[in-house]
Amino acid sequence: MFNDQSQKDLRKKLRNEMSPVEVLLWARLKGSQLEGYKFRRQYGVGSYVVDFYCPKKRLVVEVDGEEHFLSEGEEEHDKRRDEFLGSCGMKVLHVTGKEVNENMEGVIERILEVLSDTIPQSQSPLYDSQKTHHS
To answer: How far apart are CA 122 and CA 56, in angstroms?
Structure first.
């Protein structure tokens, strides 16, 4: 489910061609410098590659550029991806490139808020071998 080998070249290409705002945000997330939380960049989950992923808290951070608001196809793709990630017990936080450029501290605060509210990996339904279903 994670980092499918068939996507290895794509993930490498995406890491090498990160947008300027992704580079800015990565500078704040890499090296476990955000309160000790480790993030991975251009991480494969199923058939998708997400911008940033914190495995411990199952948090995906997606940086949306202006093109995300112009294309219906992109919007539908994002919706399907978010639904898939949610079904895997992950939370998806969308931030815009404009927010990263103009309010990095606000973006970091939002990420920290979501990190404090997310379920640890060990308690995620994806890793719960004795799932119970509630009606």
So the answer is: 8
10: enclosing H helix or E strand? helix 8-16
Q: Residue 93 is inside which H or E element, if any?
A: strand 91-96
Is residue 107 within 8 A of residue 34, CB to CB? The reply is no
DSSP letter at 90?
Answer: -
* Verdict on whether the full-model pTM lies above 0.70: yes
Cα-based angle 97, 25, 96 (whole degrees, multiple of 5): 20
Distance CA 64, CA 8 (A): 22
Domains in the chain: ranges and CATH? 5-116 (3.40.960.10)
Tokens coding 120:
């640890």
Residue with tokens 């000790």: 36
5-58 pLDDT, tens digit each:
999 999 999 999 999 999 999 999 999 999 999 999 999 999 999 999 999 999
Nearest Cα to Cα of residue 116 among 126, 108, 127: 108
Mean predicted lDDT score pLDDT of the chain: 85
127: alpha, beta or left? (left if phi > 0; alpha if psi -120 to 50): alpha
